[in-house]
Fold Carboxymuconolactone decarboxylase family protein.
Amino acid sequence: MSVTQPRLPLVPAGRAGLLTRLGYRYARRRYGAVPDPFAVAAHHPRLLTANAVHEWMVEKASRVLPVNVRQIAVYRVAVRLGCSWCVDFGTMLQKNQGLDIERLKHIDEYATSPHFSAQERLALAYADAMTTTPVTVTSEQVAELEREFGPDGVVELTYQIALENGRSRLNSALGITEQGFTSGEACRVPSP
């Protein structure tokens, strides 16, 4: 259960269609609970299904970047946009992938912090430039990322950052806040 209630109620399994209930069951097994964004999106089952398929495909396709680089860039967007749900869920994902989550406390000092690698600093600066309004990405920045990660890596990083911008803004607009994935209060998320 959320710390605060979203602006739209969560759709309980008893009111959900068959496909949504199956999705809920899968989510409970994978994450320990049904993610609130999923339960709010269930008001529009077709968009929920489209989003679930999209997220699954993006997860399967995102294999070029090192996982730590991809995850820290996505996390940075959530922090910059103030999406407490995304920060909570992103921390849990990093923990379950064996990444150091203690360093997340130093995310705002990434440019000088010894907790982040050179690759991570590049990705974090790019996440900042893409998340700022208006976008402040430069050609030099993209060229440096291309030298480090290749063109496919730049596309993957750009896509992941843009996707997290959308997720964070959607969750914030709908009032979806942290759910307890990292505190263990709401969910008992198993480590892999």
In short: The first helix runs from residue 18 to 31.
